[in-house]
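FAQ

Q: What does a record look like?
A: Structure on top, sequence underneath. For example:
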């Protein structure tokens, strides 16, 4: 066997640990890097009998205290998988740095593809299956949001109250810190922050929120349904409608609106309008959605802040700008803030 390499992993030590802790897998493995997952070091493993699994650990180097927390991801897939929610089966969790320098976990490999852009959808999902796929996505989100975290062992995942307020504080600090390196500010960010802070809807009972729920963080199977929800590292406890607003922003209501984002996975023909998905979510959860535009606006505002931070790193020379259209990032900030303002205006009437 040729020399095997996997960034961040002592292959022999990891395989020895797996042989002792996960009898369902038979090392040695073939290792193949999987991209995505917010920079976590994620590899596909194939054992001696062809069985596939996935291993994840944080990136190498110094990390922020709560970043890339493997124990949180493990707790989520373990608890959700135990009640039949579509996540990869949890195989084993190593909370010792001695094996390979960081905590890691192993989970089942689920057949399917994530959809990151329009071409992915065209390649993988037939047009006559796209409505069913969209409903499968919103049903999974609704099913997540009807779960009481206390009942499934996730009641200690995070603070239960003040989710939107905390998000507003975090992301507003991000914007203000990025103004100088970006050389760019926008009055709408400050005005919208003031509005959102002063009009936070009552949260209600905290639920598990994924934080980045869309086709890009799901595996779509050959039947065009959601086989598994993945990448739980942003998950927390909080207001489920903040999750819903993010997901609904990935869909259009009219063809004109869809045409403004032609590269999105949902910009191709066959998907139902956003309002249809919102109605299905409301029916499945029993939740009132009269403040939905607040959450949609908040998520557009948040998107502008995130892109602003990315732009600032490029502008400060912290990342190579090769192949990057900086003006396009500025256009994204502008269009996101415009969409946020439109959502707020709808709330005011």
């Amino acid at each position: 066997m040729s020399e095997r390499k996997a960034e961040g992993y002592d292959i022999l030590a990891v395989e020895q640990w797996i042989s002792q802790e996960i009898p369902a897998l038979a090392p040695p493995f073939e290792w193949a890097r999987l991209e995505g997952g917010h920079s976590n070091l994620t590899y596909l493993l194939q054992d001696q009998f062809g069985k596939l699994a996935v291993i994840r650990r944080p990136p190498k180097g110094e990390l922020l205290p709560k970043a890339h927390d493997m124990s949180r991801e493990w707790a989520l897939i373990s608890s959700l998988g135990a009640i039949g929610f579509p996540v990869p089966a949890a195989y084993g969790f190593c909370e010792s740095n001695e094996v390979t320098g960081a905590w890691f976990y192993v989970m089942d490999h689920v057949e399917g593809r994530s959809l990151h852009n329009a071409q992915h959808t065209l390649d993988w999902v037939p047009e006559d299956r796209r409505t069913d796929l969209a409903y499968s996505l919103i049903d999974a989100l609704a099913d997540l949001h009807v779960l009481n975290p206390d009942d499934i062992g996730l009641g200690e995942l995070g603070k239960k109250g003040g989710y939107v307020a905390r998000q507003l504080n975090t992301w507003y600090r991000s914007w203000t810190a990025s103004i100088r390196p970006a050389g760019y500010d926008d009055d709408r960010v400050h005005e919208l922050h003031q509005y959102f802070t002063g009009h936070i809807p009552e949260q209600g009972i905290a639920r598990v929120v994924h934080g980045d729920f869309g086709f890009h963080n799901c595996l779509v199977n050959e039947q065009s349904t959601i086989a598994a929800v993945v990448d739980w590292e942003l998950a927390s406890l909080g207001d489920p409608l903040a999750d819903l607003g993010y997901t609904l922003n990935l869909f259009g209501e009219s063809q004109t609106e869809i045409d403004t984002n032609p590269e999105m996975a949902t910009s191709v023909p066959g998907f139902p309008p956003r309002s249809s998905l919102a109605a299905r979510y409301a029916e499945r959860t029993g939740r009132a959605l009269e403040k939905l535009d607040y959450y949609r606006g908040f998520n557009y505002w948040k998107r502008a802040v995130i892109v602003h931070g990315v732009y600032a790193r490029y502008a400060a020379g912290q990342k190579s700008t090769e192949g990057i259209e900086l003006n396009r990032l500025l256009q994204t900030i502008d269009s996101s803030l415009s969409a946020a303002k439109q959502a707020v205006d709808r709330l005011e009437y």
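Q: Is there anything notable about this one?
A: Strands lie at 30-34, 41-46, 52-57, 90-94, 104-108, 207-209, 218-220, 226-229, 236-238.
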